[in-house]
Each structure stands twice: as structure tokens, then as C-alpha cells.
């Protein structure tokens, strides 16, 4: 029997709110008397659904690191890692960010296998505009086995106001991220950097390919990155379904140190989209399977998320 792999995953949890009113966040839709009728039973169902989704990635062993997006606060993270599947082995890194919707990113990790060395949040600013509010980028430096790995968890500004109108915001996020990554690579050209998140852009978008310098090929320089989502994207695969198309917004991107360096590496140079049947429903009108989301606008479906998890395995 093959040994279970050490897996690193990313999962957008689609508006993972608790049921308590936070006057400092725009959580009114996700209250028992809000427009989504977000009751305790529905919330607990989502906690269990997310747990089952993560378990299904590799039933023998949970991912040792899981980046997550669209979480409201530390309460939902605690409720998640207290589920029996996590066996009391997981902790998390999370900072509150200024996002107007009140959603953040976080990093879950198995404390028996991963040691956190440092962490910080990286604000995203456009031309120094302190009034622009979006999710911070989460930076975590961790030790796995004998190697240091630098993690960045992202949830870049959405395309809600239109692709072109919102593009400068994603470019700003890319440049903030690249500046921090460059600092690390200037100190150690073989640094092992893993960038993951919901980028609300495609692998070929300029924010990623040009401003972040994440390439679709392995022949990269020491200050460029390899986008493990490039192959699935080229095969017209995606992590979420919107406007009649699969979109590859959820991506994992690595530095040369994780591609060809010594020590731990990514065992297969591509990511896997976890499209387990339990996470999908059959849309009879469209004639295809789609991620079973929690809500469509204010209609409750009871699924775990409108995104599918993506992951890579360590060698």
C-alpha cells in the first residue's frame, strides 16, 4: 500500500461566517434573521461540509498545510479545527484585515509536522491609498522537516465591478506580493516560496504572468515563479464555474527552490483540482457537474463551497 503523501492545499470556503453579529463587519446577510437566514443548523452543516471536503482530498492523511479564504474570523477557524477529523493536531495563523465584507485569509497547519517561525500581514495599497480596503496577503515562514518554506496566502480583489475597472487592484496586490518575495529571494536565491490563493485572475492574466512574474513554463530565473495551475488551465480545467465557463482562479505558484532545489520539493510539477463527486451537483439545465455551493445569491443549497480545493504533494 502506498504511503499517504504530505499535501499542501488551498480552499476558498465561500463566505464562511458565524451566526453572531459583528458591528465592525458587513455580516448582516449571515445572521439568523438576515436575508440568507443563516441559522446555527446551517452554519454547523457548513462546518461539517468543509471538514468532509478536506478529508476527501486524501482520506488517510489530511493536508499538513491548508490555506483558506473567505473566513470571517478566528471563531470559524476554531470551530473547523475542533472537528474530530483534525484530531486536535491543527492550529492556524490569522490576522484581521480591512476588507469591507469582513472576510480574511488564514493558514491551517499540523503542529506536529509544521513549525511556524514568523508571520505577518501584508497590506495591499494602490499608489499609497490607505482608504482602499481589501484582504491583506498573509505571509508565514514555517519549517517542514529540515527546510524553511515561505507561504503566501492570497485573496485578490474580485472582478465584480468589471475586469478592466478592477484590474489595477489585482495588479497592486501582485506588486505588493512580488516586492516581499523579492526581499526573500535577495537574501536567499534558493528560498522555497509557495504562493497560493484565489487570485480572481487567470494564469495568463498580466497581474500574475507579468507583475508577479509567475510563468507557465519551468525554465524560470531565480526571481521568477512557476505557476502549477498553468497545465490545468491549458486543458480548460478550472476550480470554479461561473458565466458558463470553468475558471482557474485558485492557483499554487512556486519558486525555483521548490521546483529544482535540494530538500523538499513539489513531487509533480502541477496542481490537482480536487473535483470529488461529493463536492459537486449535476446541473440538469447546463448538463454538467458544478461545485455544490452554499448559496446562489440568497437561495440556500447547502453545499460546502462554490470553489473546489486545489493541492500539491511534497516530495
TrEMBL record:
Pfam annotation, one family: Exo_endo_phos_3
Q: Where is the Endonuclease/exonuclease/phosphatase domain?
A: 8-314
Q: Which domain of life is it from?
A: Bacteria
- PANTHER family annotated for this entry? ENDONUCLEASE/EXONUCLEASE/PHOSPHATASE FAMILY PROTEIN (AFU_ORTHOLOGUE AFUA_3G09210) (PTHR42834), ENDONUCLEASE_EXONUCLEASE_PHOSPHATASE FAMILY PROTEIN (AFU_ORTHOLOGUE AFUA_3G09210) (PTHR42834:SF1)
Q: Spell out the protein name for this chain.
A: Endonuclease/exonuclease/phosphatase domain-containing protein
Q: Which organism is the protein's source?
A: Marinifilum caeruleilacunae
Amino acid at each position: 500500500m502506498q504511503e499517504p503523501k504530505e499535501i499542501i492545499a488551498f480552499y476558498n470556503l465561500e463566505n464562511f461566517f458565524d451566526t453572531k453579529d459583528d458591528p465592525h463587519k458587513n455580516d448582516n446577510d449571515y445572521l439568523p434573521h438576515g436575508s440568507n437566514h443563516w441559522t446555527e443548523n446551517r452554519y454547523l452543516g457548513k462546518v461539517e461540509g468543509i471538514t468532509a471536503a478536506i478529508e476527501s482530498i486524501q482520506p488517510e492523511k489530511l493536508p499538513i498545510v491548508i490555506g483558506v479564504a473567505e473566513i470571517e474570523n478566528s471563531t470559524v477557524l476554531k470551530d473547523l479545527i475542533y472537528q474530530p477529523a483534525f484530531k486536535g493536531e491543527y492550529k492556524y495563523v490569522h490576522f484581521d484585515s480591512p476588507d469591507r465584507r469582513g472576510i480574511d485569509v488564514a493558514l491551517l497547519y499540523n503542529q506536529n509536522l509544521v513549525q511556524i517561525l514568523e508571520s505577518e500581514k501584508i497590506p495591499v495599497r494602490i499608489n499609497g491609498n490607505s482608504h482602499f480596503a481589501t484582504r491583506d496577503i498573509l505571509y508565514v515562514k514555517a519549517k517542514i522537516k529540515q527546510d524553511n518554506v515561505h507561504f503566501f496566502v492570497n485573496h485578490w480583489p474580485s472582478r465584480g465591478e468589471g475586469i478592466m475597472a478592477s484590474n489595477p487592484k489585482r495588479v497592486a496586490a501582485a506588486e505588493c506580493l512580488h516586492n516581499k518575495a523579492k526581499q526573500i529571494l535577495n537574501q536567499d536565491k534558493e528560498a522555497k516560496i509557495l504562493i497560493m490563493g484565489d487570485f480572481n485572475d487567470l494564469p495568463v492574466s498580466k497581474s500574475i504572468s507579468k507583475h508577479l512574474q509567475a510563468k507557465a513554463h519551468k525554465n524560470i530565473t531565480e526571481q521568477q515563479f512557476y505557476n502549477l495551475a498553468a497545465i490545468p488551465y491549458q486543458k480548460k480545467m478550472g476550480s470554479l464555474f461561473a458565466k458558463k465557463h470553468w475558471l482557474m482562479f485558485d492557483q499554487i505558484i512556486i519558486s525555483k527552490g521548490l521546483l529544482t532545489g535540494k530538500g523538499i520539493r513539489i513531487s509533480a510539477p502541477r496542481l490537482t483540482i480536487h473535483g470529488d463527486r461529493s463536492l459537486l451537483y449535476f446541473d440538469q439545465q447546463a448538463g454538467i457537474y458544478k461545485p455544490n455551493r452554499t448559496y446562489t445569491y440568497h437561495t440556500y443549497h447547502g453545499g460546502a463551497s462554490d470553489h473546489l480545493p486545489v493541492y500539491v504533494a511534497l516530495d
